[in-house]
Protein 1
Amino acid sequence: MTGRVQGKVALVTGAASGMGAAAIAVLAEEGASVIAGDVDKAKLDGVVAELTSEGLAVTAIELDVADPEGWASAVRVAEETYGPLSILVNNAGIYRTPGVEETDQAVWDQVVGVNQSGVFYGMRAVIPSIRRAGGGSIINIASIHGIVGTEVGTAYHASKGAVRSMTKQAACQYGPENIRVNSVDPGIIETAIVADLRSQGGAIDELAQFIPLKRFGSAREIAKGVLFLASDDSSFMTGADLVVDGGMIAIQ
Ligand SMILES: NC(=O)c1ccc[n+]([C@@H]2O[C@H](COP(=O)([O-])OP(=O)(O)OC[C@H]3O[C@@H](n4cnc5c(N)ncnc54)[C@H](O)[C@@H]3O)[C@@H](O)[C@H]2O)c1
């Protein structure tokens, strides 16, 4: 541990699994006090218990990012527990496969509600707290699917493109207040999302051959990117995309 976010207060969504769980561990190991939110509170409690048993400052809260009122209470709990927030990681997200004609209203509303509206509600609720902290860093987890297309996942692609675009807008609006806003665009990362696609019989593993590094990433490799953007090491970065994909979209 080198204390790269020592003394800062962070809120991470979707923290019960995958990249969110890795992000709360890495941020806490590097000195942050962390509020960990997830819609699956029982699972989150288990993840957080392990970290607190190692002496790390992490508090679990139930948070559905698609519920604006939930955000108000999350910020209140964060400030009462640790003080004003200076790091927000909008990580919670869901993937659904249907393409354009196959996407029904319920799938569209669900994916856009969590992935896109959730990021908007999060930034809107947390920015006043970051202002009280005197500035900070917001990291929105988008995806390479917000940059390039695939044959499926219309609502997912749409929502992730929106996250990248909102990130740049917010960066322009809040730069003068020293609030930096960047996105991380993961490639294929070994988490529950990928495990689900594998269990549905998808030929996901064949995609590794198209990645220059010839493998999928780990949740911790994404968390290291989050740490960089959360810390002062990225002090002149805002409105940027950090693509962490093993070179997947660099190859022709
Ligand atoms: N795994 C990949 O290959 C990949 C690639 C690119 C981007 N991403 C993005 O990375 C982020 C994290 O994904 P992951 O792979 O770690 O997924 P994951 O399924 O392992 O974890 C997602 C977590 O979010 C939580 N969640 C779902 N809906 C929520 C809601 N409404 N409110 C709060 N929490 C909610 C889930 O309970 C779960 O704990 C997502 O935004 C995802 O779209 C994933």
Protein 2
Amino acid sequence: MLSANEIEQVYWLADSLGEPGQRIDDGLFLARVAMHARELPRNLRRFLADFRASNRSPACLVLGYPVDEVRMGPSPTACNRLREKTIDEIRLEIAAILISSCLGDVFGWRLQHEGSIIHDLAPRPEHEDVGLGTGSRQHINWHTEDSFHPYRADYVGLFCVRNSHRVATTIGALDPDQLSKRHRRLLSAPLFTFRPDPSYLMSKAHPLPGTDRGGILFGDPENLCLRFDQDYIDWPDDIDGIAEAVETLRRVIEASLIHMPLRSGDFLLLNNRRAVHGRPAFTPTYRGTDRWLKRINITRNLERSRRRRQSDFDRVIYV
Ligand SMILES: [Fe+2]
């Protein structure tokens, strides 16, 4: 929880970097904001540095950023990268980038939210029955964000603008010690095909991303990481025990789930290699007061995706 003093520091730092009409997607601007992240309050930077260094916690929460819901304007019901934003919204987005920059570099996807760095997750009528962040009546099963993509985020930030109907965000994590050695071995084998979710396939742009192959579990055997999306994964059915291993993993994660209704000003940072997330179905109103989260992707190593971005400064992954 940020103290009153710290809130003031974050607020005024963000304010000093933004101006009316500021486009936050520009690579040079993002680099400049990241440089100013060192001016954030020391306790906040230390908290985020510990979260990043330990690499074991599934998530952390930064609480207390002041959001004036009236001045933020209505929850957007359409994707419009160039829509006019209020200065409060620009300031909030800069605050989100400043805080995110303590964990890594922010980036976007060409095929998601028109290549925006910050995604507005608020219900849209045309997505009402689709399992998307911009949907509503369709439950979203818990998942690793962009599990199919080799350059997926290491952290996913969800900054809550408003959530007056208290729609929960589902969060879970895997304790690998609850899996047998045999299951860990099977789940670490490169036998799984990860498929893109509908948010990519709905785009009319080309090329579309393909599938990726690998293990559900990966990394240091003493500190295994996870990627899993139960709706967009396949495995061969002729390998003894594999379906049982996946089902056990699913049950272990299911038992860990918590359901957290974020409040206005809460900034949830998920470790996308540890945590899974989702949300239940809810009823939209489209009256400008629906749940509105701002999602931001963060990588620990932007350089890795260089060949899929147009320049060193470009933060948008092409495919
Ligand atoms: Fe997600």
Protein 3
Amino acid sequence: MDRLKVGIVGSGWMGHVHSRAWRSNAPRAEVVAVADVSPERTRALASTFDDREVATYPDLATMLADAELDAVDICLPHHLHTDAILTAARAGKAILCEKPLCTTLDDAVAIRAALQESGSTFMAAHNQLFQPSLIEARRLLASGALGRTFIIRSIEAVQNRGFSTGHVPRELGGGESPWTWRADPQRMGGGEVIDTGWHSTYRLLALADDRPVEVTAMMDRFAVKQLTTEDTGLLLVRFASGAIGEIITSWAFSPVGGWHFEVGAEHGSLAGGKTRLVHQLHGWPEPVEFTKFPDDLPQTFASEITHFLDVIQHGAAPQASFDHAARVLQLTLAAYTAAAEHCVVSLPEDPTQPGAPVAAAAMAR
Ligand SMILES: NC(=O)c1ccc[n+]([C@@H]2O[C@H](COP(=O)([O-])OP(=O)(O)OC[C@H]3O[C@@H](n4cnc5c(N)ncnc54)[C@H](O)[C@@H]3O)[C@@H](O)[C@H]2O)c1
């Protein structure tokens, strides 16, 4: 597999973003096929490869039956992830899948069984794990320089105008607006928290490097009238070490300054955003700023795919493994329960098992 042959299923927004990221990893990989229910979209994506022919298909099964592939890259709406992963695993392909892993824990159990049976490599497309400021922050925390972590905040919020315009980017050709399926809770598997909130959740877990054991949450719809679900969530998470995490995620507002995370620890604190990372040990008069990082979101996708190639071609351990993605799902679904039932939900060790609301008496202890 010196040159990985890849088929992308879902030729929409992320299909284009991933396709550019694959190209920047040439010659280690090449996209040889693309699939989508919309022929206009497969044509539009295939036409971006002006140096060679890329085969087009109406669906994943037809693509797998016809094209010679080593790996499948899943860029579909959320409700289609499970079937696509199962189909690709049964065909023995390596799998990169956009977030979320799937929308139910029963599906996660089925996916785990299929991956174990087929031995297929699986990686979740958690691109923001490859944001340089987060990589540096995790390195600093792992070095022990800040001591024990007490508090971690992870923020992923932007005022989302896409719903009101229903805008379909011209490069996609025709087809359904990405906002239409996002406004449908059945296809979405929830609302903003399982979509954009997914990034803040895996970032929180990455910074904590620990197992979440409890979550509680409040959610509301403040601004995006097209939704019947939440457009905003605030989650509080307790980790096994005792550290407390906070997730703020929203399509209703853009936060000041673009900070993505903050950690308060025994010997000092740090804060990071797209381009910045600062830290301040106790007693220092000012924070120290690391070199500014470029504002380069596409590079996070390119690095994610470089890592996927390292996993397949060099045996690296996937940073966004099945377990890591299942843990994000377990926490997210438990947060929905906590918000609906006004309670704290405890999280079992097996990430495919659902959380259980904690009785009020147990909470008081
Ligand atoms: N990592 C990120 O920052 C990021 C950003 C946006 C979206 N995403 C994720 O990427 C995935 C896709 O989102 P998107 O915004 O690209 O959506 P999109 O609507 O732009 O693209 C989805 C594509 O799937 C196609 N499709 C639907 N049913 C199909 C089927 N049965 N077979 C083949 N094709 C089918 C649609 O025609 C569409 O072209 C989602 O999981 C989303 O959460 C991730």
Protein 4
Amino acid sequence: MARRIAIAGASMGGLRAAEQLRSAGWEEEILVIGGEIHPPYNRPPLSKELLKSPGSIQEALATVTLRQRRTATDIDWKLGAPVIGADLTGRRLTLATGEELGYDGLVVATGLRPARVRVPGPLHGRHVIRTLEDALGLHRDLRPDARIVVIGAGFIGCEIAATATLLGCRVTLIEGSSGPMQRTLGRELSAGMRNFLAERGVECLSGERVAAFTWQDDGTDGPQRCTGVRLTGGSEVPADAVMEAVGSQPNVEWLAGNGLDLTDGVLCDGHLRVLGTEHVVAVGDVARYPDRRAGTGPRRVEHWANPTDTAKIAAPALVAGLNCSPTPEPAAPLPSFWTDIFGIRVQGVGSPAVADRIEVLEGDPLRPADGAALAYYRGDRLIAAVTSALPADRQLHYRKLVTDAGLPAGSQLAAV
Ligand SMILES: Cc1cc2nc3c(=O)[nH]c(=O)nc-3n(C[C@H](O)[C@H](O)[C@H](O)COP(=O)(O)OP(=O)(O)OC[C@H]3O[C@@H](n4cnc5c(N)ncnc54)[C@H](O)[C@@H]3O)c2cc1C
């Protein structure tokens, strides 16, 4: 009887894992089980171009559905059927449909869901964004002149603030304790991005947090609608809709009870094998694995390139384990990311968030729209570079600098 590799999660990570399993020579069954009803789709447009004009759900889906590579042959899909439990010893999964499925190898690709602001208040009129339905729901509230409060100034919060402003909304961005995208970009470029957002009409409130939501009691039995936020400083910001962009939470609850370390994702080794298991790997946003290039301990990477990078390591390791053959030496992928805000692209390679020193290489980070580049160091080693509004050849130049900086001394892993 054919053996089965089950993949839990049918988004980019699930799709890339299926493709890489075939590339790694797995000719037996592959079953991808997805919580969403849609085939795998691309999420970055959900806060950018698609959010401006999504059209119907069918039209939106047509623009974001991921094309499957030719290697992805003979894959079985079970969509709209979340996995709700796993017995990793008995190698069985339980689906929300009540179905039980056995497997020989398992890929964890269940990604993230948005975190919520933890203060009480009605949910009506409050948005998060992760799915196509989320984007369509938010778009309906982004009417010209609508007052939109965006809570959280990470990448997604800043992108939504920009998109909503371009649609004619009046946007207030509540930054919280640090500036726009500061955790990743560092203080100076973050300050430049705040200037840039403010010049284009986004009201940025720094150093303030949400203390409470406000809402309207219209005396009916219908859902009460959120009407804004009260800030820790005491002021109130009225809103026709609120967008919560305060981070995300890994989808790992279905793995509970198996003795795994599920603190902030699924803990893996450098081959993306889930620690404490046999024949289980993780890919994409949910995987927490050693960042060998930056020289840090295990951490998650939430960028678009990561599902592909991790699937290329995890799939051959899983196939090797199942076939009792030697596990190939894993690569040490160079993380990369980008964001598009008011027409400028901020792009990075490496792990700037774990740097301890930043140097300006080109331009003025306080004027990101005019072109800038920054280098990020950990100790003496260059571990990342970020460019803003620079042409492709300059980005490639800085990418090469980071690639050439290599791995920390003593690292056993092959670079790519
Ligand atoms: C709005 C938005 C904009 C972004 N923009 C950028 C960008 O500009 N640049 C960039 O580098 N990155 C960006 N990203 C990040 C990038 O899209 C992610 O890194 C990527 O989607 C991760 O893919 P994944 O498959 O690991 O996880 P996900 O995309 O989260 O997919 C996980 C899938 O698993 C499913 N699932 C969850 N639980 C279960 C379960 N129990 N059983 C079965 N299925 C389950 C989910 O429904 C989902 O379909 C953006 C993300 C978002 C949300």
